[in-house]
Every structure is written in C-alpha cells, then in structure tokens.
Amino acid sequence: MRNQSLFHIRHRDTSAVARTGVLHTVHGEALTPAFVGVATRASIKAVEAEALRDIGLQIVISNTYHLHLRPGADTVAALGGLQNFGGWSGPTMTDSGGFQVFSLGASKEHGVGKVASIFPGTAASNEREVSSRRKAGGPSLVRLTEQGAQFRSVIDGSEHMFTPESVISIQRKLGADIILPLDECTSPLHDHSYTERAMHRTHRWARRGLAAFRVLEPDLSFPNPSQHLFGIVQGGAYRELREESARVIGDMGFDGFAIGGSLGRSKDDMLQVLDWTVPGLAEDLPRHLLGIGEIEDLFAAVRRGIDTFDCAAPTRLARNGTVFLKGEPRHRINLRNARYQTDERPIDETCDCFTCRHHSRAYLRHLCRAGEFSFYRLATIHNLRFLVRLMAEIRTAIEDDRFDALAAEWSALR
Ligand SMILES: [Zn+2]
Fold it and tell me: How do strand 287-290 and strand 178-179 relate by DSSP bridges?
C-alpha cells in the first residue's frame, strides 16, 4: 500500500527534470534534493548527533548489515529504535545490507579495501562503505541461493542468513523511516547474462520483501510503525535490463525507489543508467541514488530527477585531509599540502561551520599531520556543512528555474 503522504513535489525546474520536494516522516521533514549522511553503525564517524543538527544535516542512512552483526536489531529495538538509541531524532534510512553482503564476498576474494568504489579502477570517489574490520585472506564470505544470502560475519566469522523476509524484519526492529529490500548487487565485471539473472532474482526478492513488509505493518511493537519501503532498481549498465527493472520495480507498489548496483564503468555510463531508469519510475515518488556524492555527479543526477543521495566519500575524504572548497580543482583541497603551513585563513572564508569559524588551515594541517582525533571531527563537520549548503543552493536555484545556470557556474569553476 503506498503511503502518498511521504513525498510532495514542490517545484519542477522549467529547464531540466530537476525538482524540489519534501520527504515527510514521523521524525521530521527533509527538503529535497538532499544529501543523506552516511551513519553506517548509527553514527557518522567522528561527529555526534547533536553536532549534525548544527550542521543542518536533514537525514542519515545507517546499515542493516553492520547493525545486525553489532549490536543486533533486538538490542536496538529494546532501546527504542535507531532514533532513541543514537540520539539522532531526525529522519533516517537503512540500507538493506545486500550491497555489503555481496561486496564483502567479492572484496574478500579480490583483496580490495574497505570501501567499494562505484566505478572500479577510476579515481572517482563515489563509494559505499563495506567494512573497516575484515580479516585478511580466506574464502568467499557469501553463498547465494534463491532463499537468500548466507554469509560469515566479518567480526567473528559466525554464520548468518539474510532472506528478503528477515531483512525486512531486522529493519522493522531498527526503525528507520525509509527502508530497503534485499537485492543482489552485481559489479561492472559481471556480464549481461549474469546481470539479467541477478536482476530477476532481485525482482522476486523485492516481491517477497514487499509481502513481508505488509504483513508486519500493523505490528505496533516495533519502534517506528510509520516506515516506508523503497524498491531497488538493478540491471547493471545494460539498457534493456534497466528499463525492465524500472518497469517491474516501478509497478510493485513501493513508496519510492533507490537506484543501485553497478552504474557501469564510468560516469558517462552512470548518466546513461539514470537516463534509462528514471523515466520508468512514477513521477510523484521519491528517487534515491545509492553511493554517489562527487559534486559534479550531484548536479548531473539532480538534473535527471534524483531527489536524495548518500555517499561515504565526503566524510572519508575529510578524515584523510581532503576538504571541500568551491573553485579549486574538483572543488577540494588537501590540508596536508605544505602551502597551508602558515595559512591563517579558515578552510573557506564564506563557510559558517564550526571549524571555519574557529580554526585556521595552518592549525588544521598540524592536527591532520599529527594524527589528532580532533581533526577527524573538525574536517568532517566542514565537508558535511559544505554539502548541506550546496544542496540548499541547488534547491533555491530549482525553485527560481535557474538550475542549469547554477550547474554551469560550478562547472566553470572547476
Ligand atoms: Zn567550514
């Protein structure tokens, strides 16, 4: 059953498919287009919930895989759900954990790092977090059947099984406002035939997830009885698969949509995937793009009608010393650079964040190089505030029908 009250479109830009809207949840509203902060383990790394409110962040996404393994959904439910447990009282999403189950299997086999790049082999920092605690070596961690995905915990090696039904049940206990069904994620390395089989399984799992969601809906013992389930569109970078997936998932009765899986091997591929997918989805329902957060990609996706994004990169980059600054190459600078050694200016003289109001580039560079924990917090605060302000600027431009002009301005500065 669709809950029509979740999303309202406020304005459509006359020059693009871009639109502004509002997500209405029982935990408050989020104005869209919006950047969704990545709080994998019910925490944005290094920044507590209270500071997120000062930053102006509207919505966060946590991860079912990680919270299932630790502390466990029953523990979170007993403590009143994610909002009560973590102190973030605003709107939340949870990712289904499918991406982590499959990425972890692949990453363990291929020995890649703790984050999965959306475009493997490129310098693009679009990524989804997998895990920061993996044991080296060993066989694949995931075994896939029609019933679900069996996997070993990255924490203690214990056996777990995710089914479309259990993933809904876990997310009912976690209590996020927007939840996602179990999907099988393919990589750009999978061929058409495998991607098609995986997509059809994802569609069958989506139906089972939706049925489980409806069965569990009246149960008021869960921390949040007003949850919304989004469908996930798969199909890799293959046109007819994306169109089929958008049509099939689009007709199932979900409250909104997430676009997941392989977005191809490059950003051009990603834009094509969006061009093939978005027109198949109901115009009046919200659309989320999983794992995208580079500034040029935010503009490109908003132009194609995407409402929300999440990406682990902006906060991970911050912890490594890379902070956003409009007009610099890729709109970012690295504070480790020697040129900031005696630079008394803030990161961004136009920024109103706590970090820019209180600290110089020189001091931040020192903290970064010294490995001080405070640096993680201060740099993350700036990068999140930068994205919050950018998304507000984008929303204003759409409402004034000058989205393309704003996109051109940011593009020209790069
Ligand atoms: Zn700042």
Answer: unpaired
Q: How far is the CA of 23 from the centre of ligand 1 (A)?
A: 26
Q: Say how far apart CA 291 and CA 259 lie, in whole Å.
A: 9
- What does the DSSP 8-state code read for residue 352? -
Report the mean per-residue pLDDT for the chain. Answer: 91
CA of 121 to the centre of ligand 1 (A): 31
The amino acid present at 141, given as its one-letter code, is L
Catalytic one of 177, 255, 310, 348: 310
Length reported for the chain: 414
Distance 11 CA to ligand 1 centre (A): 29
If phi over 0 gives left and psi between -120 and 50 gives alpha, with beta otherwise, what is residue 321? left
What element of type H or E holds 207?
helix 192-216
Query: Which residue in this structure is represented by tokens 């990680």?
Result: 66
Beta-carbon contacts of 167 under 8 Å, excluding residues fewer than 6 positions away, are: 64, 96, 97, 98, 181, 182, 209
269 catalytic? Reply is no
Report yes or no: 386 and 307 within 8 Å, Cβ to Cβ: no
Tens-place pLDDT, residues 172-211:
999 999 999 999 988 888 899 999 999 999 999 999 999 9
- Using only the alpha carbons of the chain, give its radius of gyration: 20
CA distance 102 to 321: 30
* 9-34 residue pLDDT tens: 999 998 778 999 999 999 999 999 99
The string of DSSP letters for 156-180 reads T--EEEE-HHHHHHHHHHHT-SEE-
Look at the alpha carbons of 46, 50, 55, 59 in this order and tell me if their dihedral is positive or negative: positive
268 carries an active-site annotation: no
Contacts of 366 (CB under 8 A, 6+ apart): none
Taking the C-alpha atoms of residue 100 and residue 337, their distance in angstroms, rounded to an integer, is: 34
> Which residues, other chains included, contact 190 with Cβ-Cβ below 8 Å and sequence gap of 6+?
198, 236, 262
Name the active-site residue from 13, 95, 307, 348: 95
Ligand 1 center to residue 367 CA distance, Å?
A: 16
The answer to whether 299 and 34 have CB atoms below 8 angstroms apart is no
Q: Looking only at Cα atoms, what is the longest distance across the chain? A: 62
Instruction: Check if the beta carbon of residue 250 is closer than 8 Å to that of residue 268.
Output: no
